[in-house]
Batch of 2 targets.
Target 1
Amino acid sequence: MNAEINKDFVFNYLSGKSTALQKQLVDEWVKDASNEELFYQWLVEYEYKHPQYLADVHAATEYFHAQADRADENFGPDLAPEESVPARSRLWAWLVAASVAILLVGSGVLFKDNLIYQTHRSAYGETKKLTLSDSTRVVLNANSSLRVPRFGFGRETREVLLSGEANFDVAHQPDNQKFVVKTDKEFEVVVLGTEFTVYARPARSKVVLNKGKVQLNYREGQAQKQLMMKPGDLVTLDDSNHLQREVTAQPENYAAWKEHRFVFDDTTLAEFAEIMQENYGIQVLVEDKDLAQRTLVGSFRAESPDELLEIVCRIFNLKMVRTGEVVRLVE
């Protein structure tokens, strides 16, 4: 049987109205990686049109496992191969449908969120280059993530969600569509076409504009505020979103990590310890308060956290005592 797999066909499948043969056709169709994104798109649309009732997830899970156990009994060694293949196929289709249903009702918003957004992540010590579908180039710094809408990006919206740090080179669109970088720090950056770096870490946030013009929308207390930034502007926001604006002659230094360079401009050892934690997941302890306030100045290239630590120890003539992922710097 040859059938065109379209949206209505998949909607019938998701609603449980398909025949066994139609289910098998959808199961085979979705195995093709080129169809996977389209299936996700229709699944999200179906869920919005047919919201699930709050189900007893525990009972559903128990029922699912019971069916799986029954399958193990039915497909024992005495079952002939030619009999097992169709039966296994039918059961596989049922289990997939049941799994999707349990995930949808059990995971709720989180599961839908994973369907709606594609998440790009970088590990500790890793930088990752991305080119989005609108031709915007992004470089993620270590221990960061960027969520991009799976559907409609570049058409209905160009909003992305950043956690951590990233450098953006935004592609200008013929219709002047805005590009928006949202964060979980109660601020967002709105641009047309420009290059800038956004830093959104737990302790503080920063936005550095290399070229072009961006609008910074942020919340300070109960007030919603806006700031128009110019090239060279460096804006820092503390954990209460109190804003400090200054001008830097070399804004590109704030994205030097793309080339594994670290530029320190009166950076205290206490602040250096924060950088090591954020970028590499290494806890650096500087227990001497006077030592913690000594400052680093200069540009250094380091391919690994150990190399960077060794550079700092040589500069200050320090000893490094390491226990796993905890490093103590002592004189």
Target 2
Amino acid sequence: MSVNLATMLREGTKKSHTMAENVGFVKCFLKGVVEKKSYRKLVSNFYFVYSAMEEEMTRLKDHPVISKIYYPELNRKESLEKDLYFYFGSDWKEKIELSSAGKDYVNRIREIAKSEPELLVGHSYTRYLGDLSGGQILKKISQSAMNLSDGEGTAFYEFENISDEKAFKNEYRQSLNELPVDMATAERIVDEANDAFGKNMEMFQELEGNLIKAIGMMLFNTLTRRRSRGSTELVTAEQ
């Protein structure tokens, strides 16, 4: 039995998608406010999340459902390793750690891979289609906000093995619609996709404190410099 899972996922995750875009960290990011320390922590979390998801999907590549959406060209682990090398140096593996929200995310991926592998479809859809859809925009924002040269620290957004992203997304959606799942399973996949959005939001929210501190420090430094200049100008005028 086939269902229109692509449409179900698009319509069923609209609210979650909007909520994710309105998390403070994401709103700041989309407006070009990106603090490198917070960003590299996000990249670290993504490394663990994608590693878990890609390991499980590779293990399950012959599964009747997972096999239909198993596209190795989507894998992000290696590109994230390049970015981590850029942000942390050659010993990046010793420097990165998984946050609390990141652990919950990874644990959920591992859990369903064992108990209900078909639910991994919800995680694949949430992350990969989002990466393909907004990747180039986010890449440009990152480069501009952190003064990055082309090819530095933004490998995550590059899909070198996908020449036509629009065509690929259409193929992926068609594969979703051809999955051998019934309506009840399709609904559980949509629920899992919403949960994946929630897991992402929790990771973003963890970073808000660091971002607010960084923005506050930048404002403080700016005001301090202005006051210092003002005091100098005042003394000069009085003389």
